[in-house]
Design goal:
Length: 475
């Protein structure tokens, strides 16, 4: 038998979310290009990694090839939470390579880098402004030779290098891409009126990186990367998944009878209907029934704040306020503006992990969709969420708004979402006997029998009730 393969040593970036994409971090001794347009966040990312490495006791040499002074750069970084002046210059040493490059070319720059990295015993080297080195090279061969000799210096020292570049070529090919161990690309894009930042690990030798583009943001805390929710959750395995015959009822006798006791445990149910059709009240009633049975639940809403939800529930959903007061029902509100869907999902899953609910009502899939950067991701995000919640034994009820206010047709507003929904309850408005009324029907119950007749939905001071069967002639 052969010897077991050794696991390469890695340098953790300590940037939230990034090491997950890098399978733990950067390879020690590796050379990595961080590229992107001006303003994408390259300098912030490199400095954040440098400060975190220095604060952990490592030695960093940060070489700039730009005309901007170190004082001005640090002035901009001073507001960042990762900034710590106590590590400068003891553990983090800033050096300008602009003049050596201008006077002696690539050989002069390499000498300065070699001497500084050796004297400071640097475990991390940052070269900010790689495009300047490329422009100073007499030929492509000289530029590639410079990169090779830089790799030799790092290999002898056991250090890791970040090379920051904003260079772009018309044909998209860069010769340095074939020589380095990894390429991290940052972008800042405008989608409609929203600004979206993305990070893409285009290349990573010696590791199985998480592919694709991932959102990130820059705040006073620095850069935080948000890996796509689809890459972080997995469906329950055959060993984990145990079919349950348990039903979670609404506490509405006629409706529960139509669904043979309620929605199946650990399933996903859609409440589909136009505005004002009773989706929110029905979801609140479902949570109230759970609280009555001492089951923990979470209300996750986008459009109405928690006090407004409690106020509207007092008249109809008996027991919901008491459930909140007893700590059985927890409220989570998310502003549906400028959000990052992966951050929203993280927030929800953190609450699920914290409270371990049996019931979850997501009030307004439309709110979640506003945080999705690509329309087609709605289905992928909901699939990932549903799989993770199923794995944790959480039953999810969510509402989706149909644009058809009155009429015989109903359209699901998001393509592909209904395919991952186990059960569907349709609510609508109908003209009946000279008035507009609410009508309910159970359209779909996966692997279960159900009563599909149309019933009038009555929201009264005595609670939510189902009225008579509605015929086609009446509606």
């Amino acid at each position: 038998m052969g010897r077991p393969a050794t696991i390469p040593e890695r340098l953790a970036t300590r940037v939230p979310g990034l090491d997950r994409l890098l399978e733990g971090g950067l390879l020690v001794g590796g050379v990595y290009i961080v590229q992107g347009v001006p303003g994408a966040g390259k300098t912030v990312l490199a400095n954040q990694i440098a400060f975190e490495f220095a604060k952990a006791g490592g030695q960093v040499v940060y070489v700039t090839l730009l005309a901007e002074s170190h004082a001005r750069m640090l002035q901009h970084l001073r507001r960042m939470r990762f900034y710590d002046s106590s590590v400068i210059p003891k553990n983090l040493y800033y050096l300008s390579g602009f003049r050596p490059l201008e006077e002696d070319g690539l050989s002069g720059l390499l000498d300065v880098v070699r001497q500084s990295a050796t004297s400071h015993k640097a475990g991390l080297l940052v070269l900010d402004g790689l495009v300047s080195a490329e422009d100073a090279a007499p030929s492509l061969k000289d530029y590639k030779k410079f990169l090779h000799e830089l790799q030799v210096v790092l290999a002898l020292m056991g250090g890791t290098a970040l090379l920051l570049s904003n260079a772009e070529r018309a044909n998209g090919f860069r010769p340095d891409h074939t020589m380095v161990d990894g390429i991290i690309e940052l972008s800042n894009e405008i989608q409609n009126v929203h600004s979206r930042r993305y990070l893409h690990v285009r290349k990573l030798r010696g590791a199985a990186q998480v592919s694709g583009r991932h959102s990130f943001d820059i705040s006073d805390a620095g850069i935080a990367v948000h890996p796509r929710i689809e890459t972080r959750v997995k469906p329950a395995s055959d060993d984990e998944y145990v079919p349950s015959v348990e039903r979670l009822g609404f506490g509405i006798a006629d409706l529960d009878k139509m669904m043979e006791g309620g929605v199946p445990n650990a399933s996903a149910t859609m409440l589909l209907g136009p505005t004002g059709s009773g989706k929110t009240m029905l979801g609140l009633q479902w949570l109230a029934e759970g609280a009555r049975l001492d089951e923990t639940g979470i209300y996750f809403g986008f459009f109405e704040r928690p006090p407004a939800i409690l106020a509207k529930s007092k008249r109809v959903c008996v027991g919901l306020v008491e459930g909140v007061e007893r700590g059985l029902v927890h409220q989570l509100w998310q502003r549906p503006v400028e959000g990052i869907v992966d951050v929203v999902c993280d927030r929800l899953l953190n609450e699920v992990e914290r409270h371990e609910p049996k019931r979850l009502f997501m009030d307004g899939l439309d709110g979640l969709a506003t945080a999705v950067d690509i329309d087609d991701r709605v289905r992928e995000v909901m699939t990932a969420l549903a799989n993770e919640l199923e794995r944790r034994g959480v039953t999810i009820l969510y509402s989706a708004e149909s644009a058809d206010l009155v009429g015989p047709t109903m359209r699901v507003p998001f393509r592909g979402v209904s395919a991952i929904t186990h059960n569907m309850i349709v609510l609508r408005h109908a003209r009946m006997r000279g008035r507009i009324c609410r009508v309910l029907s159970v359209l779909k119950m996966r692997d279960s029998g159900h009563d599909s007749t149309l019933r009038e939905l009555l929201i009264t001071d005595r609670g939510i009730l189902l009225g008579d069967v509605v015929t086609a002639l009446e509606a």
